[in-house]
């Protein structure tokens, strides 16, 4: 699951280019909402925590593209972890671009449940595009449409690589949701430490609002994960994300089984996510005095 996923999901991120004009806050022009720190309360802590980890309040767009037989469960895996998994696949895929595009297209369509995708590029080049047309990974997965550009270099065996991807507009839909995604990401691995940096904008086409994951950074070494960034909610404002205790995970794509993430908002308010083998517990400090209370 780690590598073909990256191809697509890297397109989820937005560094201020990709056909979108950035505001003075460095946010995409599609973001219309609060740019102030969020006051974390018992009523909004879960929404902010879910959004910060997944990029949107309800589910993650990254579920759209994955190989069949993806491993692990998706209860706690973050958006950035999913993207990292895809980036690893894309790192290996850069080597495929040296082969005829026609062959890539015919073999690529064997992945997934319905629809298709094609990869095109110049043999010998380290850049290419991948286009999805009504693509579903599984019978219950959302449908993806859009074109993504990627470039990169990969070392022997794909264990070391440097990769970047972008999209100006990609859409995924299911029975009750429709999202448009734009952005870029960069990922590097030296064989022992993998670092992903990303910015993404996701517009809910039904609710007509956009959330932003800004300066998201994921670093994975051995079994240790760290995660930082800033999440913008159009109604409540932004929270900053920090790793209070490094997360423990069997792989970059696995659910964390230990560790703690801290979200910080206005006037010292905070929320913290403490991971365990079955998911994570959520607590909030709504007074800014260091006293955390479990969020039901």
Please write out the topology.
Elements: H1 4-9, H2 45-54, H3 79-96, H4 101-108, E1 114-120, E2 127-136, E3 143-154, E4 161-173, E5 178-189, E6 193-204, E7 209-221, E8 224-233, E9 237-248, E10 258-264, E11 270-276, E12 279-285, E13 293-294
Antiparallel strand pairs: 1-2, 2-3, 3-4, 4-5, 5-6, 6-7, 7-8, 8-9, 9-10, 10-11, 11-12, 12-13
Characterization of this structure:
There is one protein chain. The chain is mainly β. The protein has 4 helices and 13 strands. The protein has one domain. It has a 13-stranded antiparallel sheet with strand order 1-2-3-4-5-6-7-8-9-10-11-12-13. Strand 8 (224-233) and strand 9 form a beta hairpin. It is globular, with a radius of gyration of 18 Å. The protein starts with a helix and ends with a strand.
Strand content: 35-45%
What's the overall average pLDDT, rounded?
A: 74
Shape: globular
Estimated helix fraction: 10-25%
**Structural class assignment:** mainly beta
The overall strand count is 13
Neighbour order of strands in the largest sheet: 1-2-3-4-5-6-7-8-9-10-11-12-13
Domain count: the total is 1
Q: Work out the radius of gyration.
A: 18 Å
* Terminal CA distance: 33 Å
Largest sheet properties: 13 strands, antiparallel
Count of helix runs? 4
- The succession of helices and strands, N to C, reads HHHHEEEEEEEEEEEEE
Low-confidence stretches: 1-21, 57-77, 98-109
Protein name: Lipoprotein
Keywords: Signal
Signal peptide: 1-22
């Amino acid at each position: 699951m780690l590598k073909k996923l990256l191809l697509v999901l890297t397109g989820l991120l937005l560094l201020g280019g990709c056909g979108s004009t950035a505001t003075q806050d460095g946010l995409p022009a599609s973001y219309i909402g609060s740019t102030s720190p969020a006051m974390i309360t018992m009523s909004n802590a879960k929404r902010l925590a879910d959004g910060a980890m997944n990029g949107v309040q309800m589910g993650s767009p990254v579920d759209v593209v994955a190989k069949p037989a993806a491993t692990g469960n998706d209860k706690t895996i973050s958006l950035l972890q999913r993207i990292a998994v895809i980036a690893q696949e894309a790192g290996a895929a850069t080597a495929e671009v040296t082969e005829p595009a026609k062959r890539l297209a015919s073999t690529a369509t064997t992945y997934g449940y319905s629809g298709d995708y094609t990869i095109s590029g110049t043999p010998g080049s380290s850049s290419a595009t991948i286009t999805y047309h009504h693509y579903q990974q599984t019978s219950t997965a959302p449908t993806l449409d859009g074109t993504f550009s990627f470039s990169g270099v990969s070392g022997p065996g794909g264990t070391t690589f440097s990769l970047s991807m972008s999209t100006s507009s990609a859409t995924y839909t299911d029975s009750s949701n429709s999202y448009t995604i734009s952005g870029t990401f960069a990922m590097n691995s030296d064989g022992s430490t993998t670092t992903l940096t990303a910015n993404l904008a996701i517009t809910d086409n039904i609710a007509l609002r956009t959330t932003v994951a800004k300066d998201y950074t994921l670093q994975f070494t051995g079994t240790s994960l760290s995660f930082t960034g800033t999440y913008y909610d159009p109604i409540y404002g932004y929270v900053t994300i920090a790793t209070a205790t490094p997360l423990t995970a069997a792989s970059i794509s696995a659910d964390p089984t230990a560790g703690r993430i801290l979200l910080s908002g206005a006037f010292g308010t905070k929320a913290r996510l403490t991971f365990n083998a079955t998911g994570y517990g959520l607590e909030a400090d709504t007074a800014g005095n260091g006293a955390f209370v479990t969020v039901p």
